[in-house]
Amino acid sequence: MIFEDETMLAYDKPSGMLVAPDRWDKKRENLMALVHDRLGHGVANVHRLDADTSGILLCAKTKPALDFLSGQFQSKTVEKKYLALVVGSPPEDNFAVDRPIKEDEHHPGRMRVVPKAGKASVTEFRVLERFGRFTWIECRPLTGRTHQLRVHLAATKLPILNDPFYGDLETKLLLSDLKRGYKGRADEKPLINRLALHASELTVKHPTTREPVTIHAELPKEFEVALKYLRKFGTNAAKR
Questions:
Q1: Which helix (H) or strand (E) holds 38?
Q2: What is the pLDDT along the chain (240 residues), one digit of tens a residue?
Q3: Which of 84, 48, 234, 83 shows the shortest CA–CA distance to 167?
Q4: Cβ contact 206:7 at 8 Å
């Protein structure tokens, strides 16, 4: 738990954990089942995160708080910030993607951009750091569609590292590719071995005070380690 008061609380969900029960595998562990076991069923999640995405999940402790917070998500007044490591380098430091999204009829559970007949989807992106073939990006979704960030980035030829649905799983972030004269283990593991997407910041109006509240989730340790090496050996990465 990273935030709690009398009306709401927030968790830093780990990558790989579902928010709610899986529709195909009801026995698979999920965060809300753990929350309900500990705090009771009066606590409800206000929104969702992909299982593979880590970061902030906001919950309400009362029905009035749930209604008030949910209304902000529905009216798109919540400010959300995600951080992603993508494969590729965008031509501009600031750009936006405004492309409708709908479910991919050929791949249930996945989404795709379409020219029309999809749900309106808009994301703003800002380059934070460039490391040759990898780029550290801030993502601000203005709408809240399933897999929106992943689909929008993939559609602009900037797939998120290790995205099993929309990316190239053959691309790995290896220290041996960054550091000249690497003398590590023969069975080297990638610096990041999960979807490189983290929900880092969320700003909502408080259900009681009506004042803005900003919640932060620290970067996962493997992200910090990967960024340390990218910053140290970034010139090498740029030459590859």
A1: helix 31-39
A2: 999 999 999 999 999 999 998 776 777 899 999 999 999 999 999 999 999 999 999 999 999 999 999 999 999 999 999 999 999 999 999 999 999 999 998 888 899 999 888 999 999 999 999 999 999 999 999 999 999 999 999 999 999 999 999 998 889 999 998 988 787 777 899 999 999 999 999 999 999 999 999 999 999 999 999 999 999 987 555 444
A3: 84
A4: yes
DSSP tag of 160? B
How far apart are alpha carbons 63 and 207 in whole angstroms?
11
* First-to-final CA distance of the chain: 41
CB 162 within 8 A of CB 134: no
Could you tell me the two tokens for 105? 């009829």
Positions marked catalytic:
50
pTM, whole model, 2 decimals? 0.93
Domains in the chain, please, with CATH? 3-238 (3.30.2350.10)
- The Cα 19–Cα 33 span in angstroms is 8
